[in-house]
Amino acid sequence: MSDDPQGQDPARDDEPDVRFTYANERTFLAWNRTALALIATGVAATQLLPEFHVAGGRQILGIPLIALGALVAVTSFQQWRANEKAMRRRQPLPRSPMALVLSIGIGVVAVIAAVLVVRGPK
Amino acid sequence: MGADLPPGSPGRDPGSPDRVSDRVEVAETWDEGLAPQRTQMAWGRTGLAVAATLAVLSRRVWALGGGLEVAALVLVAAGGLMWVFGMRMSRDLHLHMDPHGLVGSRAFALVSGGTLLLAACASVFSVVLPH
Q1: Low-confidence winner among A49-58, A101-110, B34-43, B60-69 (lowest mean pLDDT)
Q2: Which residues of B, range 20-79, sit inside 8 Å of A by Cβ?
Q3: Nearest by CB: B8 against A1, A15, A67
Q4: B23 and A77 in contact by Cβ < 8 A?
Q5: Among A61, A102, B45, B128, which has the minimal tally of Cβ within 10 Å of its Cβ?
Q6: Which 3 state secondary structure label does DSSP give A52?
Q7: How much is the pTM?
């Protein structure tokens, strides 16, 4: 992988204001922290929660969180690259669907958790 | 975007220089403000998140037994090391870049890859291994 997000000669693009580059980097890191939090929460759910009446309830709760964390980790890098590319070419920053995906994912996990809690522990 | 934005701001035509040397001059006129410190702190916060995730996963590793814990520990450590190397690479780029803005995507790919490896370990531990 090249250091140049465009895969071209860096001299062909304009160097963006470093403050925007730093902001893009911090956004990437914030998404990465979100991914790590989802992964740790997923593992904790499968490891620390009591058994539910539903068979495999802890896994049903934890695995989607871990999968969501993996998805966020991958897309955060793609989003960073896309933003960097747009800034260097003075184009509008691309929109990311990840905020919506994350909201829906966490909502779904919350519903699963509610159902498991209502059914009660074993 | 206001009219007083510096050259290089998205959405503004700054009359960009054509030569790399000109670009370096432009870069030196930018005021970074507290952006480097804030970014450094963001790396620190993310490092703490990585440490917490490693701690949660390590707790699981030691419960494995039967020699599996060594393989699991290697995978978890690899994820952590990828993250650390990515962070160091990014820091080196920040220290030596001229102009400053070109951060290597290799560093961020390593960081994302490390997080992805930790996610893979977490999935395997949660699905395959008994409690």
Answers
A1: B60-69
A2: 20, 23, 26-27, 30, 32-33, 35-36, 38-39, 42-43, 45-46, 49-50, 52-53, 56-57, 59-60
A3: A15
A4: no
A5: B128
A6: strand
A7: 0.79
